[in-house]
User: Which sequence fits this backbone?
């Protein structure tokens, strides 16, 4: 290995530093204001902007290893350092953040390239099996964002309403002509420099259990009564495991539960294989896939639970749910692909363990699966005791096979999701940089030293300061929201025109839905139908209208975006889908194939 210089950039903040100050910060998207006591016991990080990464690169780093960072910053830093326009740099970073997911077919395990020239960025994929298209690049611009054409970024707002996505061709490294897309026209509204500060505090110790169930209605009646008492909750897959809205079979709803288990004698091998299998199922592409943000809903974060069943014997478990009909129908094929992917990813570990994957109603599995959890503020032992009491009260332990609760680490809750003002001095303190020189595979610990790097000043004119209003208000004003216009029309037959129907978290307080159409005719028909008006969306999701943030249209991506407030913060004890990637089910009802 050749010698190289490595920079590390930390992003963790001592909560004591912000006590007495965070109360004046702007909370994002309705995040509740925490108490000083909650912040004091939180783990706190600041979302790193581009400047620290640029500083490390400027001082000769070949590799930069970052703590918590704004995703596009990792890609935009090098472009900004080279003098590329900020709006173009950040927009390109947004497209690059998930690699070849911005291609067709998409994949998070493949690469995407952006080449910058005067005023434009050119995207292409080195893998000729994937194509970069105008729609795929425009669609990823929307990904995980509340609004369709304005995005809050460190130090400003990226505006994409005037962006141009132009299909073209380039000659690849192997001499073949491949598709590419040129991006230009993005703009940046400058604001005073701020960074997002995130905090989470431990709420208690968690115990969990899982068991199969055939009679869902009977199980639900017993469980829900007991669930109302104490710190226990259940995800009952097949009925309401993915969301509070129960499955409506008459409307075409389906729901499945997936149980992943890995057993072995080596803890690290068990953990590695479980992670590989889970990732394979979560991101597997398959014919007819519409939920491109993720195939599964996880009730826990972290999603994997590991424990020692006997001395020297380890088990790893992950439970998830799905409301995507195509995934459930093709379970056998998807399971095979996930196992093969895991075998290729961690071959030695895979051969040393036993893997079991099961889906409700498939391959002889029962129709229902429920996952229960209990949180105790006292101890892990108390959590196990309380969980066992819950199982007995709910009638679970009266079943033929006894259910054994297991410890599952700690349960945490977000406390901070706020914008903090930042200057050069705070930038250096919150994001300290250390450098080390590697000579081959050997490093002298004495060379590891913190660096005092020259700050990169962020200049803001008085004209820019006129926009110093709350970020949420600015984003709302810049994005054209689709308001209700009379009653929703009766529209059918749109399913074939919707290429993607996906949901995903936008921060910790919102879920955003993207419906991306095959052609302009289908997009325009849906847009004019008023089926995506705020009152119509609220009715389909069975939520109050005031919980709908807005509906937005994007003609570049042929997409309709709907953003709603979450019923609980992402990752909370009551959350059934911590990433929000399986909340799209009710919107599929809008695309009935009936005439």
Assistant:
């Amino acid at each position: 290995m050749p010698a190289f210089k490595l920079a590390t950039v930390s992003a963790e903040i001592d909560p004591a530093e912000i006590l007495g100050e965070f109360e004046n910060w702007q909370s994002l998207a309705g995040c509740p204001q925490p108490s000083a006591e909650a912040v004091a016991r939180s783990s706190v990080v600041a979302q790193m902007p581009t400047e620290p990464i640029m500083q490390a690169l400027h001082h000769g780093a070949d590799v930069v290893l970052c703590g918590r960072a704004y995703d596009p910053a990792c890609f935009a830093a090098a472009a900004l350092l080279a003098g590329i326009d900020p709006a173009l740099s950040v927009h390109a970073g947004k497209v690059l953040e998930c690699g070849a997911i911005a291609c067709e077919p998409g994949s998070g395990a493949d690469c995407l390239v952006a080449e910058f020239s005067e005023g434009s960025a050119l995207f292409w994929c080195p893998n000729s099996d994937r194509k970069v298209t105008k729609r795929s690049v425009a669609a990823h611009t929307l990904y995980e964002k509340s609004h369709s054409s304005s995005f809050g970024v460190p130090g400003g707002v990226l505006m994409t309403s005037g962006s141009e996505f132009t299909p073209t061709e380039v000659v690849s490294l192997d001499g073949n002509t491949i598709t590419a897309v040129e991006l230009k026209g993005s703009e940046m509204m400058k604001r005073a420099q701020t960074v997002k500060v995130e905090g989470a505090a431990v709420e208690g110790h968690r115990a969990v259990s899982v068991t199969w169930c055939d009679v869902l209605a009977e199980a639900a009646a017993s469980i829900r009564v007991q669930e109302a008492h104490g710190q226990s909750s259940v995800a009952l897959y097949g009925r309401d495991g993915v969301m509070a809205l129960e499955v409506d079979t008459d409307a075409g709803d389906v729901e499945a539960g997936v149980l992943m288990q890995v057993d072995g004698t080596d803890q690290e091998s068990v953990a590695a294989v479980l992670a590989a299998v889970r990732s394979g199922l979560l991101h597997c592409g398959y014919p007819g896939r519409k939920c491109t943000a993720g195939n599964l809903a996880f009730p826990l974060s972290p999603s994997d639970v590991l424990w020692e069943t006997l001395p020297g014997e380890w088990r790893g478990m992950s439970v998830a749910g799905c409301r995507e009909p195509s995934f459930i129908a093709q379970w056998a094929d998807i399971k095979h692909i996930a196992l093969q992917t895991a075998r290729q990813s961690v071959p030695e570990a895979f051969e040393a363990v036993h893997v079991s994957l099961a889906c409700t109603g498939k391959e002889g599995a029962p129709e229902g699966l429920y996952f229960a959890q209990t949180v105790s503020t006292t101890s892990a032992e108390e959590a196990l005791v309380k969980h066992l009491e819950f199982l007995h009260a709910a009638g679970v332990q009266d079943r033929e096979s006894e259910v054994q609760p297991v410890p599952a680490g700690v349960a945490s809750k977000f406390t901070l999701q706020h914008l903090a003002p930042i200057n050069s001095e705070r930038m250096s303190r919150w994001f300290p940089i250390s450098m080390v020189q590697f000579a081959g595979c050997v490093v002298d610990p004495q060379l590891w030293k913190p660096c005092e790097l020259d700050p990169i000043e962020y200049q803001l004119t008085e004209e820019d300061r006129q926009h110093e209003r709350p970020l949420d208000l600015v984003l709302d004003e810049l994005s054209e929201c689709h308001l209700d216009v009379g009653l929703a029309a009766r529209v059918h037959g749109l399913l074939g025109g919707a290429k993607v129907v996906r949901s995903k978290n936008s921060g910790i307080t919102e879920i955003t839905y993207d419906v991306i159409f095959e052609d302009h005719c289908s997009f325009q028909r849906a847009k004019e139908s008023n089926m995506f008006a705020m009152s119509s969306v609220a009715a389909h999701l069975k939520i109050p209208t005031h919980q709908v943030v807005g509906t937005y249209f994007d003609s570049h991506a042929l997409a309709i975006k709907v953003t709603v407030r979450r019923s609980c913060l992402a990752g909370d004890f009551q959350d059934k889908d911590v990433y929000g990637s399986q909340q799209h089910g009710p919107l599929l009802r809008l695309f009935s194939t009936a005439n």
In short: The longest strand covers residues 194-213.
